[in-house]
Model the fold of this input.
Amino acid sequence: MGKAAREASRERLRQEREQAKKRAARNRVLGVVGAALAVVLVVVGGGYLFFAQQSAQEQAFADRYEQLPAQTLQEDGSVVLAKEGVKAPVVEVYADFQCPACKQFETASGPTLQQLASEGKAIVHYRPVSIFAQAQEPLSANSLRAAAAARAAADHGKFVQYNDLLFENQPPEGTQGFATGDLKEWGGEVGIDDPAFAQRVEAESKVVDTFTGEYLPRLTSAAQQELSGAEIKEMGLSGLMEWGDDNGVDSSFLQDTYVQEVIDATGAVKDRYSSGANAFNGTPSVYVNGGKMGDAAFSGDGVRDAVERAEPGKVSTEPLAAGAGATADASPEPDVSP
Amino acid sequence: MDTTHQSAPDAAEPAAASRRWAAIQPWITLLARLGLAAVLAYAAVSKLPPALSVQSVEAYQLFSPELSRLIGFTLPLLEFALALLLFMGLATRYVGAASGLLMVVFIAGIVSAWARGLNIDCGCFGTGGPVAEGETRYGLDIARDLGFLALAAIVTIWPRSPLALDRLFGLYR
Done:
């Protein structure tokens, strides 16, 4: 090989090395840019799918109530869901928002009840109670806070939606839940934009704090000094509170609150269904025209069957006079007698 | 892409300045990179939930409802992805360029809203939408976006910085 040839081959080698280096650098850049694009794709694509699914769910939640008939607030704070002027069996639902069996009932049969009401086949009478009002914290406060907030939602004609949302978000027994902030936020979720709702929820939650934190312990210890355990049990919460008013434990802070209303409603159902096969002894209790349903209540089909077999019935409460915020005069003929 | 800094060999004075620059530059880029990442991440999070972000996009009256929805959903995600990449320092130069491009698009959007006499909040951070007449602050928004554009330019022109994944792959060392 001549000198010139050696030179040329060396030059060629040098060029090849140079090119290989450039290629390697380009590949590194391509690799890194590719990795970055993959990150963008995963974040944007994955996030988009997540958002889209979330919004589809929200839409489905909003649509679910499109067919819902009028919700009529009653004098005792309960709510009647029925088509205007319809003649159909009355299904009373007594539930405590903190009771796990009530959540099961709502999940299994709640949608069917709403459907029956929208088809005009049933008059659904929601009657929230608080069987946990005297239970240990945080059970009692959870139960009362939720019931009072649901009553506030009824003022804005959104009880049914709010009821469903409460059960959906029921805290496990024994843990803090139904926080005031959440209760207010859920109002917005069901379409209540009146600030009066949030104010009411806030005020009622403070009443609940006083009730469970100060009033009830004082009432209980005063009663235990003068009465036997059996007597206290016999009186029920409403009776005990009356006794307290006569014996120096003042309950006037509860006046005109929704907390008082749900306590009254709970006392009233025990009087209404006091004995026999129809006796109220816990939640959920479901009555078709005053007859208590058994385990069949825990399935949509069971409820539908019971309603289809029953005769038209009468609602036992009067609608609250107009001006209270609820959808007015959509309820069927009221009947005063229980 | 050549990233080594060529120093002028003629005088000693510029050479020293250039060495000083070579020592400081990676830290300036790091600051710009992380600053821009923080801005983008905050912008992304503050736009959520997506329904509100869609509302901000619709306020510009530039796109069909479907397109507004798509942009409203993906824009915060894109911002977040860019923030993540800037934070990690992956493909720094290109991500910086993309961020800069995004700022240019934002500025163009604001200018167009301004030119059409719309009264909207730019929706750059948090929720946009119509505002009262005289409550607009387009000039300020554009100035701010120009600032972010400058950060993106620094990152793009001098991508070399410490604490970057790029270095693991042999880039911008």
About this structure: DSSP finds nine helices and six strands in chain A. The mean pLDDT of chain A is 89.
